[in-house]
Design brief:
Helix 4 (81-90) packs across helix 8 (195-224). Among the domains are: 3-49; 94-190, Chitinase A, domain 3 (Roll). The chain has ten helices and four strands. A four-stranded antiparallel sheet has the order 2-1-4-3. Helices cover 51% and strands 13% of the residues. By secondary structure, it is α+β, with helices and mostly antiparallel strands. It has helices at 3-13, 18-44, 51-73, 81-90, 112-124, 129-138, 157-163, 195-224, 243-248, 271-277, and strands at 99-108, 143-150, 171-176, 179-190.
Length: 280
């Protein structure tokens, strides 16, 4: 093992001080020694000549080079204070008027026709969760009910504006191709976030969003300058790429999510998918 190999591995661990770096270097060295032993065994077994292994290595190499090229073309953009302030003001439900919601959720696996029928019923007259459960049972539609506590950053963005308007005792619905999520607002607790507190998360979000736009533009530039010909079953892909296709070509690392109040906090906004998964 060389010092360069150890230092390269340490860069990924990012130790905070000299003591951590010393301990981490020992762990890294042990790991590298074990890796080298297994690597030698793999060569003895001629795994480097296995067609599937060769193909996997080549795929990983191409993917890494492509992503590295794109990352180096997109220079990090830091949003200005005015942009951060504007975003803060435009999303009071995330910051100034932030509330933590306590809800009772009913997830029902429904097709589009059933969803439309339920929506009409809800528009006709005020319904309780028990009324909706009875309506679903009468049509043999499977559903389950769970209690949840959600912060705004854990709510699907397209539903947050609606759930933020719900008062205690009110019901809201969220539909997807897989079904409907009916939410009864049991109560909420105000937990506002100041602009100073939100600034790091907003800055990161806006920066990621801008980087995604730049990466998409660079991908379009590369595509426009290239001659691509699709054959056989893929001939239709030769048509002008859609916006969705353009986004799909951008590495996932460039993607951005709604800013979370806590740095590094993962959003679990896909409540619909979680709710319906238990019905399958």
């Amino acid at each position: 093992m060389t010092v360069h190999q150890i230092n390269f591995a340490l860069q990924r661990l990012a130790p905070q001080n000299e003591a951590q770096a010393k301990e981490a270097s020992k762990q890294v060295l042990r790991a590298l020694v074990e890796q080298e032993m297994l690597y030698q065994k793999a060569l003895e077994a001629k795994l480097d000549r296995d067609p599937q292994v060769v193909q996997t290595l080549e795929f990983s190499r191409r993917q890494f080079l492509a992503q590295t090229y794109l990352a180096r073309q997109v220079k990090p953009v830091k949003p200005g204070d005015a942009d951060i302030k504007a975003y803060y003001k435009q999303h009071p439900e995330l910051f100034e008027q932030r509330r933590v919601y306590r809800t009772q959720d009913m997830a029902a696996a429904m097709n589009a026709e059933q969803q439309a029928e339920l929506q009409k019923e809800l528009e006709k007259s005020k319904k309780s969760l028990a009324d909706i459960a009875q309506w679903l049972k009468a049509r043999n539609i499977p559903f389950k009910v769970v209690n949840s506590v959600r912060a705004p950053e854990q709510v699907p963005p397209d539903f947050l504006s609606r759930i933020a308007k719900l008062q205690d005792g009110q019901i809201g619905t969220l539909s997807s191709p897989e079904g409907t999520l009916v939410i009864l607002m049991l109560g909420s607790q105000a937990q506002p976030v100041t602009e100073a507190q939100a600034k790091p998360a907003i800055e990161k979000f806006l920066s990621n969003q801008k980087n995604l736009e730049l990466a998409s533009a660079e991908m379009k530039k590369v595509r426009d300058a290239s001659k691509i010909e699709y054959l056989g079953d893929y001939v239709d892909l030769g048509k002008e790429p859609s916006a969705a296709q353009a986004k799909a070509a951008v590495p996932a690392a460039a993607a951005s999510e709604s800013p979370s109040v806590k740095a590094g906090e993962k959003s679990n906004a896909n409540a619909m998918e979680r709710g319906l998964s238990g019905l399958k």
